[in-house]
Amino acid sequence: MTAYLRSWLFAQAPESEGHLTPNDVPATVEDSEIPTISTISTISTEDDDDSSTVHGDDVNDVPPSFPALNSAQRLSIQKPSNNIPRVLTDAQLMPPPPVPLLAVRQPGVASGSSLAVPPTTTKPPPKPSAKRSKVALAPGHGPLDWANLKKSGQDLRGVDTLLRVTPSMLKEHRTRDDAWSAFNGKVYNITSYLPYHPGGEKELMRVAGRDGSKLFALTHAWVNLDYMLDACLVGFLVPES
């Protein structure tokens, strides 16, 4: 057994200085005393290159172009799209008027320029065709006095019940002491209201005994006639039977 181990160690060890030979192993070495010799493989570093640890072959310090050469931003800069709106300056949005027009234009005189004053502002307003004269009412015949008279309970109708008044019946009441008039299909006894009329008794007597709807609309259509003469209602205007 000893001879076998001696030949095996000799075959495994390299032939170099510092290694055992078959003659160097004593014959009396026991199996348990023979040390285990492990071989150490060395790595040669003569061909190592520091550049092998660098990843990439064409490494430099030049930064990449931005935007990229094949990017959509660079293509849009080189070839602007027609969909992008154009930004106009103030002069392009509203150019100034021509110089000759500004030089010859006079204030208040109409010209071909759109900056001229409209003719309606340079002409005086038309005068009214007819002047309405103010009528001085007698003391105690103002609007508040008429409102108090309606609330007093005095009979201003002159009839006991509402009537169906025909044009012929209406025509019979056209005097100063007995004056009826029709407005918008309603017949009123205007006798008590004559001295309270702001336009005077003469103007109100123009519609006595007939339909005064048209004249009332032309004179003062904004007046609430139904409220003004509600206590004087006689009846309703109907056609002749």
TrEMBL record:
UniProt-recorded name of the protein: Cytochrome b5
Taxonomic lineage: Eukaryota, Fungi, Dikarya, Basidiomycota, Agaricomycotina
SMART domains, per the entry: Cyt-b5
Record-linked Gene3D superfamilies: Cytochrome b5-like heme/steroid binding domain
Keyword Metal-binding: yes
Record-stated family: Belongs to the cytochrome b5 family.
SUPFAM superfamilies for this protein: Cytochrome b5-like heme/steroid binding domain
PROSITE patterns for the chain: CYTOCHROME_B5_1, CYTOCHROME_B5_2
Domain of life: Eukaryota
This protein's record includes keyword Heme: yes
GO terms, molecular function: cytochrome-b5 reductase activity, acting on NAD(P)H; heme binding; metal ion binding
Segments forming domain Cytochrome b5 heme-binding: 162-238
InterPro entries in the cross-refs: Cyt_B5-like_heme/steroid-bd, Cyt_B5-like_heme/steroid_sf, Cyt_B5_heme-BS, Cytochrome_b5/Flavoprotein_Rdt
Chain segments carrying region Disordered: 110-136
Pfam families: Cyt-b5
Keywords for this protein: Heme, Iron, Metal-binding
Any one cellular-component term (Gene Ontology): cytoplasm
